[in-house]
């Protein structure tokens, strides 16, 4: 059985979380209560020494009846282990503090993985805070995008209205039901209506619309028929 976990050594809370992980693993061994209480003090002293030496993290390895606290350096002389049963070992290119935990190797590996994967209340709270912050950033970005698109739509509609109003030909904008949505002055002149006069809601209400080729195309049953083009400058609406 061999499991490992990266432990952060940044900040006081990280030291307490690292010690808590190691003590829970040592509780699986045959060590007595007095030994665990002593280890709680010595472990914290060891972790504080590592932090003071500038180590930002270390790797906790669990291998049968031994815990290894491995550092990213081949040398770690001068450490006070605080317990005569602890020892320094080289594992590959890393210097490790070996801590015996007799009987731990007989524990179900899933239990050990559960301890290593378990998150503290502070870690869960930090994840919630980070998630809320990410959600707030996403919401702010979404609101900004809505504002941007709304403004772009307003500018587009303003440009369309400007083009329609200044067009040299008559332009009437209608929806699928034939309701008039926009009309320019040229179209009003074609229909013989003065600007500002009462306008019908649909094209069918225009006296000048009935009888034109365009009106006949809109009549039911006449779709697909070809109508003659209006003579140039005839002034009629086709």
Automatic annotation (TrEMBL):
<dbReference type="Pfam" id="PF13188">
    <property type="entry name" value="PAS_8"/>
</dbReference>
<dbReference type="InterPro" id="IPR035965">
    <property type="entry name" value="PAS-like_dom_sf"/>
</dbReference>
<feature type="domain" description="PAS">
    <location>
        <begin position="161"/>
        <end position="196"/>
    </location>
</feature>
<protein>
    <recommendedName>
        <fullName>PAS domain-containing protein</fullName>
    </recommendedName>
</protein>
<dbReference type="InterPro" id="IPR000014">
    <property type="entry name" value="PAS"/>
</dbReference>
């Amino acid at each position: 059985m061999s499991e490992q976990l990266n432990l952060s050594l940044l900040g006081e809370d990280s030291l307490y979380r690292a010690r808590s992980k190691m003590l829970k693993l040592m509780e699986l061994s045959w060590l007595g209560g007095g030994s665990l209480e002593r280890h709680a003090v010595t472990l914290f002293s060891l972790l504080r020494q590592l932090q003071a030496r500038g180590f930002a993290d270390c790797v906790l390895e669990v291998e049968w009846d031994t815990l290894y606290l491995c550092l990213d350096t081949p040398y770690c002389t001068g450490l006070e282990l605080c317990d005569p049963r602890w020892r320094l070992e080289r594992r590959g290119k890393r210097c490790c503090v070996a801590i015996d935990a007799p009987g731990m190797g007989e524990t179900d590996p899933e239990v050990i993985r559960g301890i290593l994967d378990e998150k503290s209340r502070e870690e869960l709270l930090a994840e919630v805070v980070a998630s809320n912050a990410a959600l707030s950033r996403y919401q702010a970005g979404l609101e900004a995008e809505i504002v941007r698109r709304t403004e772009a739509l307003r500018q587009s509609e303003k440009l369309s209205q400007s083009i329609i109003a200044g067009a040299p030909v008559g332009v009437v904008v209608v929806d699928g039901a034939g309701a008039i949505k926009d009309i320019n002055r040229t179209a009003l002149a074609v229909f013989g209506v003065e600007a500002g006069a009462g306008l019908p809601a649909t094209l069918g209400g225009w006296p000048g619309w009935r009888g034109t080729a365009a009106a006949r195309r809109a009549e039911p049953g006449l779709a697909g028929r070809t109508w003659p083009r209006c003579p140039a400058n005839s002034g009629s609406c086709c």
